[in-house]
Amino acid sequence: MRHGKKFNHLGRKTAHRKAMLANMACSLIEHKRINTTVAKAKALKQFVEPMITKSKEDTTHNRRIVMSRLRQKDAVTELFREVAVKVGDRPGGYTRIIKLGNRLGDNADMAMIELVDYNELYNANKPTKKSTRRSRRGGSKAAAPAPAPEATATNEEE
Questions:
Q1: Which helix (H) or strand (E) holds 33?
Q2: What pLDDT, in 10s, does the model give residues 97-109?
Q3: Quick check: 64 and 51 in contact, CB under 8 A?
Q4: CA dihedral defined by 75, 76, 80, 82, rounded to 10 degrees?
Protein backbone atom coordinates (compact mmCIF):
# COMPACT_ATOMS: atom_id res chain seq x y z
CA MET A 1 0.00 0.00 0.00
CA ARG A 2 1.20 3.51 -0.71
CA HIS A 3 -0.74 5.46 1.90
CA GLY A 4 0.74 8.92 2.39
CA LYS A 5 3.40 8.50 -0.29
CA LYS A 6 2.64 11.41 -2.59
CA PHE A 7 6.17 12.19 -3.75
CA ASN A 8 6.64 12.15 -7.53
CA HIS A 9 9.56 9.86 -8.36
CA LEU A 10 9.85 11.29 -11.89
CA GLY A 11 10.75 7.86 -13.31
CA ARG A 12 14.19 7.87 -11.68
CA LYS A 13 16.03 6.12 -8.89
CA THR A 14 16.56 8.05 -5.65
CA ALA A 15 20.17 9.12 -6.25
CA HIS A 16 19.46 10.24 -9.82
CA ARG A 17 16.37 12.18 -8.73
CA LYS A 18 18.18 13.94 -5.87
CA ALA A 19 21.11 14.87 -8.11
CA MET A 20 18.77 16.18 -10.82
CA LEU A 21 16.76 18.28 -8.36
CA ALA A 22 19.95 19.66 -6.80
CA ASN A 23 21.27 20.67 -10.24
CA MET A 24 17.94 22.23 -11.21
CA ALA A 25 17.79 24.14 -7.91
CA CYS A 26 21.30 25.50 -8.46
CA SER A 27 20.32 26.60 -11.96
CA LEU A 28 17.17 28.25 -10.61
CA ILE A 29 19.16 30.15 -7.98
CA GLU A 30 21.77 31.20 -10.52
CA HIS A 31 19.50 32.19 -13.44
CA LYS A 32 16.33 33.08 -11.43
CA ARG A 33 14.13 31.18 -13.93
CA ILE A 34 14.37 27.94 -15.88
CA ASN A 35 12.23 26.05 -18.37
CA THR A 36 11.38 22.42 -17.64
CA THR A 37 8.43 20.04 -17.62
CA VAL A 38 5.47 20.69 -15.34
CA ALA A 39 6.14 17.58 -13.23
CA LYS A 40 9.78 18.51 -12.68
CA ALA A 41 8.81 22.11 -11.89
CA LYS A 42 6.37 20.95 -9.19
CA ALA A 43 8.98 18.61 -7.71
CA LEU A 44 11.57 21.39 -7.82
CA LYS A 45 9.21 23.77 -6.03
CA GLN A 46 8.86 21.32 -3.13
CA PHE A 47 12.64 20.86 -3.11
CA VAL A 48 13.79 24.49 -3.23
CA GLU A 49 11.25 26.41 -1.13
CA PRO A 50 12.32 24.93 2.25
CA MET A 51 15.92 25.83 1.41
CA ILE A 52 14.95 29.44 0.63
CA THR A 53 13.15 29.55 3.98
CA LYS A 54 16.31 28.29 5.70
CA SER A 55 18.41 30.91 3.91
CA LYS A 56 16.44 33.73 5.55
CA GLU A 57 18.31 33.03 8.80
CA ASP A 58 22.03 32.96 8.04
CA THR A 59 23.49 30.48 10.52
CA THR A 60 26.23 27.91 10.09
CA HIS A 61 23.73 25.14 10.74
CA ASN A 62 21.35 26.35 8.01
CA ARG A 63 24.23 26.76 5.56
CA ARG A 64 25.33 23.18 6.20
CA ILE A 65 21.81 21.82 5.72
CA VAL A 66 21.40 23.68 2.42
CA MET A 67 24.90 22.72 1.29
CA SER A 68 24.15 19.04 1.89
CA ARG A 69 21.19 19.26 -0.49
CA LEU A 70 22.52 21.66 -3.16
CA ARG A 71 26.15 20.50 -3.30
CA GLN A 72 27.43 23.67 -5.03
CA LYS A 73 29.19 26.29 -2.96
CA ASP A 74 28.50 29.16 -5.38
CA ALA A 75 24.76 28.49 -5.37
CA VAL A 76 24.65 28.36 -1.57
CA THR A 77 26.56 31.64 -1.34
CA GLU A 78 24.23 33.37 -3.79
CA LEU A 79 21.17 31.95 -2.04
CA PHE A 80 22.21 33.26 1.37
CA ARG A 81 23.55 36.64 0.17
CA GLU A 82 21.25 37.82 -2.61
CA VAL A 83 18.09 35.73 -2.72
CA ALA A 84 17.52 35.69 1.05
CA VAL A 85 17.76 39.49 1.22
CA LYS A 86 15.20 39.90 -1.55
CA VAL A 87 12.67 37.44 -0.06
CA GLY A 88 13.28 38.39 3.57
CA ASP A 89 9.80 39.77 4.24
CA ARG A 90 7.88 37.17 2.20
CA PRO A 91 6.26 34.47 4.39
CA GLY A 92 6.41 31.78 1.70
CA GLY A 93 5.59 31.14 -1.95
CA TYR A 94 9.01 32.04 -3.30
CA THR A 95 8.56 30.41 -6.71
CA ARG A 96 5.99 30.71 -9.49
CA ILE A 97 5.18 28.07 -12.13
CA ILE A 98 3.93 29.37 -15.48
CA LYS A 99 2.73 26.78 -17.97
CA LEU A 100 4.11 27.27 -21.48
CA GLY A 101 2.32 24.67 -23.59
CA ASN A 102 3.61 21.42 -25.06
CA ARG A 103 7.08 20.56 -26.29
CA LEU A 104 7.32 19.87 -30.03
CA GLY A 105 9.35 16.66 -29.84
CA ASP A 106 7.36 14.56 -27.39
CA ASN A 107 4.34 16.77 -26.56
CA ALA A 108 5.38 17.04 -22.90
CA ASP A 109 3.74 19.78 -20.82
CA MET A 110 6.36 22.52 -20.38
CA ALA A 111 6.54 25.17 -17.69
CA MET A 112 8.76 27.99 -16.56
CA ILE A 113 9.60 28.11 -12.86
CA GLU A 114 10.95 31.38 -11.53
CA LEU A 115 11.72 33.17 -8.31
CA VAL A 116 8.80 35.51 -7.64
CA ASP A 117 10.73 38.55 -6.45
CA TYR A 118 12.99 38.63 -9.51
CA ASN A 119 10.27 39.11 -12.14
CA GLU A 120 10.01 42.82 -12.92
CA LEU A 121 6.96 42.43 -15.17
CA TYR A 122 4.69 41.09 -12.43
CA ASN A 123 6.11 43.28 -9.66
CA ALA A 124 6.14 46.60 -11.58
CA ASN A 125 2.43 47.40 -11.12
CA LYS A 126 2.11 46.32 -7.49
CA PRO A 127 3.03 48.93 -4.89
CA THR A 128 4.96 47.67 -1.93
CA LYS A 129 2.72 48.03 1.07
CA LYS A 130 3.23 46.83 4.57
CA SER A 131 0.69 44.33 5.78
CA THR A 132 -0.41 44.83 9.34
CA ARG A 133 -1.28 41.95 11.59
CA ARG A 134 -4.37 42.38 13.69
CA SER A 135 -4.52 41.05 17.18
CA ARG A 136 -7.49 40.27 19.37
CA ARG A 137 -6.27 42.65 22.05
CA GLY A 138 -7.06 45.69 19.90
CA GLY A 139 -10.71 45.58 21.04
CA SER A 140 -10.59 48.89 22.91
CA LYS A 141 -9.38 50.68 19.78
CA ALA A 142 -12.09 49.08 17.67
CA ALA A 143 -14.79 50.08 20.19
CA ALA A 144 -13.91 53.79 19.99
CA PRO A 145 -15.29 54.43 16.46
CA ALA A 146 -18.56 52.59 17.28
CA PRO A 147 -20.47 55.71 18.57
CA ALA A 148 -20.16 57.38 15.15
CA PRO A 149 -23.20 55.57 13.62
CA GLU A 150 -25.32 56.60 16.62
CA ALA A 151 -24.50 60.24 15.94
CA THR A 152 -25.73 59.89 12.37
CA ALA A 153 -28.91 58.26 13.66
CA THR A 154 -29.72 61.38 15.72
CA ASN A 155 -29.14 63.52 12.63
CA GLU A 156 -31.67 61.48 10.67
CA GLU A 157 -34.35 62.01 13.32
CA GLU A 158 -34.09 65.81 13.01
A1: strand 33-37
A2: 999 999 999 999 9
A3: no
A4: -10
